[in-house]
Write a structure and sequence with these properties.
Blueprint (H helix, E strand, L loop, with lengths): L1 E2 L1 E3 L2 E3 L3 E7 L2 E11 L2 H20 L2 H17 L1 H12 L3 H21 L6 E4 L5 E9 L2 E5 L7 H12 L3 E5 L5 H12 L8 E3 L4 H10 L5 E5 L2 H13 L3 E5 L5 E4 L5 H13 L11 E5 L3 H13 L19 H16 L3 E4 L3 E2 L7 E2 L2 E4 L16 E7 L2 H9 L3 E2 L1 E5 L3 H10 L4 E4 L15 E2 L2 E2 L9 H4 E9 L1
Parallel strand pairs: 1-5, 8-9, 8-11, 9-10, 11-12, 13-14, 13-21, 14-19, 18-19, 21-22
Antiparallel strand pairs: 2-3, 4-5, 6-7, 7-25, 12-24, 15-18, 16-17, 20-23
Length: 477
């Protein structure tokens, strides 16, 4: 069976199909999924444009009810969807079920936001004139999502887009079409009018390029690599399309002398290595002050070396496989580059063999690294963390901010003074105090600074800043 694209309310075959491979067991094919092309993007955009006038002006209760039904079904099937996610992406089963749960909560949240649309009624500086400021939907939104959160990220783009009255064409990452297809199948039965939601699976160089360049698309929301994001941004700006880009991070985790050692080691382990380190919010740079450095390094090395790497769906697994052979090779190459530049490999950094053939890698911990090393400049996106030793808080802050990225930053300390100063002066969109950098909530803004993000924030009520446009109306009484 081939899983088809969903366009104008129908399941349509692509020009070809490709197998979806389980990274925990490369002999396990999750399914065959359609590969679309420019013609199917054209059809999907046409369907969305035809549906937009009625959907954008329809009653808000209908929107809310549809999103609520989607969220309810996701939550009812969270274990099934989590199992699919773990199987196709390699996230451990508990993490995958948690992601499915979050996707359901996101749709539920935006079902409520449909009923909380607001504006402003202001007096004019001119007598007898009133001013009303309202938000209106943009039109047809192209959504391009990554492979590392194949349920949550599509959810946090689709749900607000629909909640604010837009129509959608989504292209998921071609490595993980299964979760997007399952989500589309749920959405297809939610009561949305034909054409409001469309799914076109395929490769970025075909489907993604066609979507970004399509004259019928009013805006693009993209999450992925910095290089691709920059090209999309340039294309969209040339065409006067609204654009939202999330492009990764090289997130610092500062550890001060007064930090609780046991709690901080666990915090850093979770933040750097869980989800196989394949999170844009992962703290891959650990910046540790002199006083705690020896004890911290010893404790963290022992914890990382003991991490259980195995099949993502196997009970007791703490770290699943890397998502693909190409990603595994990239991760291993970064470790070797760091070693040639003088880093000390404390543990891990090699491919592992398990009962099934998969893309398994021992989590790598590198010490004696410096800010100028490539391992501390480039996003690895795998189970790799580097440690930098600094003399005090001031140097730690300077090193933390010495990066072209600015998504998330963390500090472990019992000092209110240093925590407060770090929250204000860390050059990041999100700051964590005594928490992993990789844990965020769905009802508050998500996004960063510098090379990590461009455009309005995602998630929560702040999503309206991207998915709507402002209208100011003047009325003579």
């Amino acid at each position: 069976m081939v899983h088809h694209n969903f366009i104008a309310g129908e399941w349509l075959a692509g020009s070809d199909s490709a197998p979806n491979i389980n990274p925990s067991d490369v002999n396990d094919v999750v399914g065959e999924y359609a590969l679309g092309g420019a013609a199917q993007v054209d059809a999907a955009v046409a369907a969305a444009r035809a549906a937009f006038p009625a959907w954008s002006t329809a009653g808000i209760q209908a929107r809310s009810d549809a999103l609520d039904r989607i969220g309810s079904e996701i939550l009812a099937r969270r274990e099934e969807l989590g199992d699919l996610l773990a199987r196709e992406e390699g996230k451990t089963l508990p993490e995958a079920i948690g992601e499915a749960t979050r996707a359901g909560h996101i749709f539920k949240f935006f079902a409520g936001e449909c009923l909380r649309l607001s504006g402003e009624l202001l007096p004019s500086v001119r007598p007898s004139v009133g001013v009303e400021v309202t938000r209106e939907p943009l039109g047809v939104i192209g959504l391009i999502t990554p492979w590392n959160f194949p349920l949550a990220i599509p959810a946090w783009k689709i749900a607000p887009a629909l909640a604010y009255g837009n129509c959608v064409v989504i292209k998921p990452a071609d490595l993980v079409p299964g979760c997007a297809w399952a989500l589309a199948e749920i959405i297809s039965r939610s009561g949305l009018p034909v054409g409001v939601f469309n799914l076109v699976m395929g490769q970025g160089r075909t489907v993604g390029e066609a979507l970004v360049n399509h004259p019928g698309v009013d805006a693009i929301s993209f999450t992925g690599s910095q290089g691709v994001g920059q090209r999309i941004g340039q294309t969209c700006m040339a065409q006067h399309k609204k654009v939202q880009l999330e492009m990764g991070g090289k997130n610092p985790q500062v550890v001060l002398d007064d930090a609780d050692l046991k709690a901080t080691v666990e915090l850093c382990t979770q933040s750097a290595f869980f989800s196989t380190g394949q999170r844009c919010t992962a703290s891959s740079r650990l910046i540790v002050t002199d006083g705690i450095y020896p004890a911290f390094i010893a404790a963290l090395q022992a914890r990382v070396a003991a991490l259980r790497v195995n099949d993502a769906r196997k009970a007791g697994t703490e770290i699943g496989p890397v998502v693909s052979q190409a990603q595994l090779e990239q991760d291993l190459a970064h470790v070797e580059i760091a070693r040639t530049e003088g880093a000390l490999l404390l543990c891990g950094g090699q491919r592992l063999r398990r009962e099934t053939e998969g893309f398994y890698m021992a989590p790598a911990l590198l010490a004696d690294t410096g800010p100028a090393m490539r391992i501390n400049r480039e996003e690895v996106f795998g189970p790799v963390a580097s440690v930098m030793r600094v003399k005090d808080y001031d140097e730690a802050l300077a090193v933390a901010n010495d990066t072209p990225f600015g998504l998330s930053a963390g500090i472990a300390t019992t000092s209110l003074k240093h925590a407060t100063h770090f929250r204000r002066h860390a050059q990041a969109g999100m700051v964590m105090v005594n928490l992993p950098t990789a844990g965020v909530d769905y009802h508050v803004p998500f996004g960063g600074r510098k090379g990590s993000s461009y455009g309005p924030r995602e998630q929560g009520r702040y999503a309206s800043e991207f998915f709507t446009t402002i209208k100011t109306s003047y009325v003579q009484a």
